[in-house]
Amino acid sequence: MDKIIKNARINGELSAIVIENGRITGIGSAVAARPGAEIIDAEGLTVIPGLVDVHVHFREPGLTEKETIATGSSAAAAGGFTTVLAMPNVLPVVDQEEQLKKQLALNSEKGLVKVGQIAAITEELTSNRLTKMGALKAIGAAAFSNDGHGIQEAKTMLSAMEDVRKVGGVLTVHLEDNGLANGGVVDPKAGKRLNLPGLTALSESTQLARDIELVRATGAHYHVAHVSSRYSVELIRQAKLAGLPITAEVSPHHLFLDESMIKGDDSNFKMNPPLRTKEDRYALIAGLLDGTIDMIASDHAPHTKEDKAGSMADCAFGIVGLETTFALVYEHFVASGLVDLQTAVSWLNEKPIEAFGLSNAGRLQVGDPADLVIFDEKEAFRINPKDFHSKGRNTPFAGEQVHGRVKRTFVNGEEVFSEK
To answer: What EC class is this (predicted)?
Structure first.
């Protein structure tokens, strides 16, 4: 059904948005919709383009006790995300053409939002046997990743970069040298305090330094997932100054939390990479502000209560993030006056669309798909895991007061979320 959203605040000005056949056909104070269009009054509210998250885990098939495509995409819609890219570490791993076809069909059938699919770099995520990237990209792979596992062999990474360069794809890389990680679960500084095994930042930065040289040799588009270390930020900065095709993301927990905030053996603070020092956190914020880091991605990683039970030494890595990311970014960056809303939206819409070539994601422009979010900049609320649409409740942000509540979310002009 055609729609017109009136009294919408867009970039600080009152405007209207006309939606016809799922696309935006008009934006402005004098636009009009065809007779019979649904009228949506957004008085007092702000409209932004649908958010884009290039790093989520929906767990289906194989791990549906943690999350499903339906519950994960419902969480995305509730958080204002209209396009997400799902990682391939489901069961079976998305590393073969037939599996990718099945996964894309599942995503389309069960997803409330646009669920793109990332395929594996190597078979089973931990082998040195490369997937058939050309065939996978032709079928529809949005990018390639072994997320959750670092590629240990430089020769394997070099071959992967050569292949991804040929097919014009993107490698989105989890950096972790297993020998240096040494079974750690928290930053070494927190580890000493909490008597838990430490996971050094060198595990991330040394692999990054290696890979930057391989990018220099191949020209492959290389995307750094969930940057956590100040040393990595500086390496990325220097690589970009050298003109290398590198992009990077940072997750909200690494921006807004650090190891000093872990007060005890609390599994909700266990993620990989771990929360690092205050100096690392400040470097990540600075890197985001100066463009070294391109975008924010949630690394939404839902787990069951049982998965997260017990000590950080034994429980699963990961936290949920789709329903908290936007509000946290709005609270800490926009409401605080550090950046304007347009800058925050660029980290969560424009930059991921550009980096991953997401042609079916809307940017709130005439002719684009009507992927839109209506939210209240003034409403304050506390993050309550009991309200989550995700199956996961594993968040360290429970109880935090934030602003920026999502009221309604639209994908291709159809409402996929409305606050009750």
So the answer is: hydrolase
